[in-house]
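Researcher: We are triaging several targets before committing to wet-lab work. For this one, the compound of interest is adenosine-5'-triphosphate. I'm pasting the protein sequence and the ligand SMILES. What I need is the predicted three-dimensional arrangement of the protein with the ligand bound, expressed as structure tokens, so it can go straight into our comparison scripts without reformatting.
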Amino acid sequence: MANVTLRNVRKTYVGGFEAIKGIDFEVGDGQFCVLVGPSGCGKSTLLRMVAGLETITGGEIDIGGRVVNQIEPADRDIAMVFQNYALYPHMSVYNNMAYGLRNRRMPEPEIKTRVEEAARILELAAMLDRKPRQLSGGQRQRVAMGRAIVRQPKVFLFDEPLSNLDAKLRIAMRVEIRKLQRRLSTTSIYVTHDQLEAMTLADILVVMNGGQVEQIGNPLEIYQKPATTFVASFIGAPPMNLMPLRSDEIRSQLAGDSRAGEAGILGIRPEDFVITDETITGGVALGLTVEAIERVGAETFVYGTRQKEEQGVATTPGELPPGEIIVRIPGAVGPAIGERIRAVAAPDKLHLFTADGRKRIGS
Ligand SMILES: Nc1ncnc2c1ncn2[C@@H]1O[C@H](COP(=O)(O)OP(=O)(O)OP(=O)(O)O)[C@@H](O)[C@H]1O
């Protein structure tokens, strides 16, 4: 049981590349923290620094009240689960799980108890004599989890543990990992570039970009109130529609909105549009020509382009670049390609940001 605290943590690689530019956050005892961000944002570097596999250039990492900057990985009381599982191919499942404990000279009866308990939890009890090659991808991943569990560490660290699995198995394993973590209440830090995995697993979500934290918090709060346009477009699929607010006509639609003065960018989530000819007071209406439709069964994605010439709605030519807008509607209905529609969003669905996208305006 442990908190993990990062204080102004920095990493400059040999050669001078600054991969982590001063990061602060705390993961409470038993919480599940997910680091998410695009490729190269530094999330693996940060996780490896917590693990002790990468040196720390500046700041402090504290695990369970102890600064671990100078402490060897083996002495940090953490267990890491990697993307490639890193199982020993010539060893049985049992021995793979027991290996780390034997290295610590734990008595065999204690090892047996721990391995059997982990195997029971992970439904691997019938497979303890098999070699990794005789297992499916999902089962191998569970052995890798088992190896972490038997250590009974203070902290689990996961580095994209599901990325080698097919889509269906990923979802199943995602649910299993979350259930397991709740059951064991072990503080966890999990790295992924998959925003859906991040949303569904996290108690605390840390959205990273370019070696810095863009936003940190509860995943739903981040979804509902993204702090920057980067977060707005990274969290949520399809992403939030973002439009520069150069048009006086859009501005006039926003006239009653106290936030409008400072705003340079308007954001609307695809699911927050309604296709209607009616007007919603204080809302925004966009005239769209439907370019493409994706029906996935439970919902339909409508891809439209803004019409420059639409009267009273979108834009005046030259003022607001027409862009593609995605509208998400429930069910398998929806307009036809080429049709002109009016997509309307209510005032409480409008996200406003400064022109540089770095700041959210209002609540
Ligand atoms: N040993 C190294 N020396 C120099 N630069 C490095 C080294 N390792 C990583 N980097 C750089 O640091 C940055 C962060 O890398 P990191 O692996 O942490 O990213 P990531 O967010 O985990 O990306 P991905 O999702 O692609 O794994 C990248 O720009 C990478 O090129």
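Researcher: Any quick observations?
Model: Residues 167-184 form the longest helix (18 residues).
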